Amino acid sequence: MKKLRGNPVISSLLMVSPLATVLLIFLVLPIALIVIVSFWRATEFSIIPAFEFDNYAFLFGSPVTYTVFFNTFKYALITWACTLVIGFTVAYYLAFHIRTLTWQIALFLLCTIPFWTSNIIRMISWIPFLGRNGIANSTLKSWGVIDEPIEWLLFSDFAVILAFVHLYTLFMVVPIFNTMMRIDKSLIEAARDAGANGAQILWNVIIPLTKPGIMIGTIFVVTLVMGDFITVRFMSGSQSANVGRLISNDIALLQYPSASATAIVLLLTVLITIAILLRFVDIRKEL
Amino acid sequence: MSNQDLELVSVTKRYGATVAVDAINYCFKSDSYTCLLGPSGCGKSSTLRMIAGHESVSDGSIVLDGRDVSHLPPAQRGTAMMFQNYALFPHLSVLDNVAFSLKMKGVDTAKRHAEAREMLELVDLTDLAARLPDQLSGGQQQRVALARALITRPQVLLLDEPLSALDPFLRIRMRGELRKLQKELGISFIHVTHGQDEALALADDIIVMNNAVIEQAGPARDVFNAPQTQFVAQFMGGHNVVALPDGHFAIRTDAVSISAPTDGAVEGNVTAIEYQGTHVSLSAMITGDQEILALIPDSTFFANPHTPGDRIGLHWDSKDQHKLTA
Fold this sequence. Notes:
Chain A is mainly alpha-helical. Chain A has helices at 2-6, 8-37, 54-61, 63-97, 101-112, 119-124, 126-130, 135-143, 157-181, 185-193, 198-227, 230-235, 243-252, 256-280, and strands spanning 41-42, 47-48. A two-stranded antiparallel ribbon of chain A has the order 1-2.
């Protein structure tokens, strides 16, 4: 035993083994399983282990797939743009306009309060607000802004994106705020000393230095939105679909091989998207 | 008084109830190297930052070149500041760091790069123009910061503890370069430091600050040679502060000589002897439990050496005895 411990190779292997085991069981194994199942054959009433590309052929042959993937990207892109603008503004305000650390922390915690309830509850709470006879419509009507209730407030792409932005803006705020707090305040002074005005400081100093934070936030938001299915289902009233819903429908119909194939394609799409994003910004400094 | 002078007119800085700078008046000579010297928290940095425009003036005014600049933004004052940790933009190359203020003015790329190259030549960094600040040594970073400040063609360059981040060897070399640069450019440098040796080595004029006020200001030699207050004498070092019947006096340690007990002005017991190479530092206790330090050339000392416990006489010329007002 003593000899075993003395061996540097074995002791380092022992040290990595707990994490490696966890990753193996909870990450590698399930993915491997999905990959295997995605090649199986399925009929209406049975699933047969096999190795064939029928599921993929069907997936890539169906026009629905392309619409759904397009929808997924559309949600991701619009949500990303909205969360970026809101998240950056909030983080900027917290980091550069709030002067004392106590207030910064207090206001930051305030931002996290919505996270004390579950995603689904926060999502559903929009329904009475946005509905045909909901608070939004009746208020607008009482102000005389509209005569007829606005139909597209709920069960529409608008509602889906609104819910996404509501759910995921904090994932943008946190990394951007974190990066901004690390910016040396004397850099701002140096920029002002060189004659930069507020907008120039923002564009030439703060945004370039915040890029890693923006990128981490972007990865959070994009992966969360691309993998979501419940928000799309609730907020679109089952009228829109993204890839997540495609998979969940397949699962509901017990079409596991087809669901697996879709999941693998989605996984690869997300990985490629992140790989492209990482080419633009080096986030290693932040980690 | 020429128009180019920078003048502080009862400049005051208050943070809530605390007064950081208390109504100081001073007129900086043009084309001179001035050091603001004092212990930390004495208000020297606040003064510099008020001149730069990074701190608002609570009261009083700052006049540069005949204009009251107290409420102008930093870039419109004709000053440029070099920050303590240099504050180089980490995402920009050396060249772009230097060209930053020109970019802010909207100068086109080719022109601002040409001008930045000229500045880099001045500080001898042409070869490193494409590097990022992280890839430079401390001394090189400092020279980039200098070039970046000088490209705005300031009338006054403000330096906030510029040498404190460097190692001692580099510090001595860089202070030589700073001094040379000031002479070459013919503009005023105002340099904040807490090191008296740095101030003496660099400055034409020294302003010693303590507790938010100027204790003494004047040519470096006068400030060192003839301190007016006990604080200045102790802070500048090299002085004995002695309480004599008609008040407190400062006497330079190298102006004190020793003799036989009965021949001196005062008698004392040797308490410690320290060999310092060119000099020997001898401490003696005189009446009234006052310690006096005498710096004696080593040849003189070893011609007639003493050991702790010896009774000796100490004396000095009356012209070396400076009366302290406080």
